[in-house]
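hey
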């Protein structure tokens, strides 16, 4: 079983509001870094050159937050209690 199959088995309770919002007009290097760093592959560069993040699959690992400065992510917070990823053990 590869990493994509394992990530696909996770369970999430989506929030109505996104808990991660990238800033507009990021430089190409920062966008490429975010695309490359996310272990769940949630960042995508769209056809118009903008950056999109699909927060419903977020592992809440914080990697993206740690690798870019505060201006690059307009918002990064953990989802509210009972929302986001539901961690399993075993
Ligand atoms: S917190 Fe982790 S899983 Fe969530 S978007 Fe950032 S890098 Fe991806």
């Amino acid at each position: 079983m590869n990493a994509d199959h394992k990530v696909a088995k996770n369970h999430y309770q989506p929030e109505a509001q996104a808990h991660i919002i990238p800033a507009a007009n990021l430089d190409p290097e920062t966008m490429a870094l975010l695309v490359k760093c996310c272990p769940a592959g949630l960042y995508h560069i769209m056809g118009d050159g903008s950056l999109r993040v699909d927060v419903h699959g977020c592992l809440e690992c914080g990697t993206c937050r740690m690798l870019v400065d505060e201006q690059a992510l307009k918002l990064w917070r953990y989802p509210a209690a009972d929302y986001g990823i539901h961690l399993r053990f075993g």
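The pocket of iron/sulfur cluster is lined by residues 20, 37-40, 42, 53, 58-64 (CB under 6 Å). Residues 3-86 form a domain with the Alpha-Beta Plaits fold (CATH 3.30.70.20).
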